[in-house]
Amino acid sequence: MRYRLGVDVGGTFTDVLLIDEDSGTSFRAKTPSTPQDQSVGVLTGIEKVCAAAVTSLDSIEQVLHGTTVATNAILEGKGARVGLVTTAGFRQVLQIARSFVPGGLAGWIIWPKPEPLAPLEHTVEAVERIGADGEVIVPLDEDDIRAKLRKLRDDGIQALAIALINSYVDGRHEERVAAIAAEELPGVPISVSSRVLPELREYERTITTVANGYVQPQVTTYLENLLNKIDKKLYILRSDGGLASAAAAAANPVSLLLSGPAGGVTGAVWAADQAGYTDLLTFDMGGTSTDVALVEKGLPRVGRETRVGDLTVRSASVDVRTVGAGGGSIAHVPELTKALRVGPQSAGAAPGPAAYGAGGLDPTVTDANVVLGYLPTELAGGEISLDRAAARTAVQRVADAMGLPSAEAAAAGIVDIVNENMFGALRLVSVQQGYDPRDFALVAFGGAGPLHANALGKLTGAWPVIIPPSPGVLCAYGDATTSLRDEAARTYIRRFSELSDDELRGIFEDLAESASATVEAEGVARADQTITYQVDIRYHGQGFEITVPAQVKDFDGAGAGLAALGAAFDAEHERLFSFLLKNEHELVSIRAAVSGPRPFVQATTLPEGGTDATDAVRTTTDVYVDGATVSATVYDRAKLRAGNVVTGPAIVTEMDSTTLVLPGHAATVHPSGSLLIRPVGN
Question: Hydantoinase A/oxoprolinase domain location, by residue (predicted)?
């Protein structure tokens, strides 16, 4: 048998999914993450899942991995010491930035501006200049830059970023500086902006290239260690939801900053499609954070910016918003305000919530769910046993600090607050983008997502709430079922009156050929490739642009293609801002993305069982809901059949997650295995 393996490393758990490539049968495993060395948790998970499938590592042909190594390097400030080469006169490009200050009025007074990833003392200027038309204005002074690179070498830089003005038009000077740097700084990884991001805007191109260099040594070391231990063909999930080979990922690690969340969105799209839904909000709640995204007509929204902490880079990514709200989020009551707060601090995998019995003392969201009776006594298939007494002791501290009558009241408050935090994130991807969440289904997954899904359905009005099979390992499922992808881009600033359909079609074809060759080199035949196109358009005179899809078939030489792009831009502009301008349309950038086919996975088909779910009942338990203790029925999800109806209050348990069905709601089992939760009567 031949297997492919999906691996997702989260802040608390590492999820592994093994898929038989011939039959599509899958096996799953969940194990605590090992932050000190993520590869340890990955290997433990691989051993567990191979044992479950009665196979060995030798039978695995491909490993598909969503990793947070690049993300953590940014968040923890533990990246490389980066040197930067800029054009003379642009040495302060990172310090000037875009003069944007987050927060409300007077935020600039108290906002601590983050330090640039490449400090000024490690930034040198190259005597050179290329014009916006690609003409060389000042030739490169090679002797001067060689001497400056030697100084950077003596300063002990660990990575080098090269970002010269207008290099997106012509990168010849950057390439020459890179060649000299390879001689003067042997062994130091070099990031070149005309390769990393061949698009206009010097600050965005520079910060993206510097970020690439900042995370590159850590990502490269991690991938090399993992390859040495598993000795398999390794692919890494990119932020935009596609796969890249380990070598391509190591060369362009800035494209991995949202690698982990992208896998969950991919898995959610597949699960929702099996249940018959293509418009959905995804809600991935893990142990450390919650990631949300919007999917329209089966396609996740892909943005041109990636945000991690205080850093924003110009790199394609699924439009995922993250909040510090997870099962391990710590509840606390500040002495000054006496107002309950939850997160963003997390107990993580070590020591974890107090209920884990591993030394954690702080009250967390998991502890609150234990106190409320929502969680069973064991998690991760019995690997983690919950200490209810320790959870109650931790949560009681919150009750005492706030003068509440019981630990249950404090636990309910913790859950309410974390739900509101996650509701705020869902509004960011829906209401603030011009979408009504009531027009979408809500797909909940992650180890903690199904516990809070019903409550988020009530807050958003998004029905049904869909709980996929094995929701705790859905991110790994997305990793294992993602296709190879590559993208080529070009900045080409022209007003529509200066363009023709034939000219634009030629550029599309050139870019598609470049990306297609990369995917073909990874073993995907041209006949199996799918090509999509995007363009960035603005009104002439505007300082920002909107990305819209393009159809090459429309470019027939008669102007229909440009007309279609203009109409698509106007429709999106009006949806986002509720007005249009009479200014001429202007093209800014063009992109072609090439994807391979998605691998075959056997879809679940449950046998019909009628509405009566009695055969799946395990026991009953007391839960605290709406200020009172009530009796809830506990179901074994493995015994549920298609058509079964689980009426709340109820708890549905499985190996990797627990689902809570609130009073006044019912979950219907879809033949695909998903639970569809709706208010009773809807």
Answer: 205-486
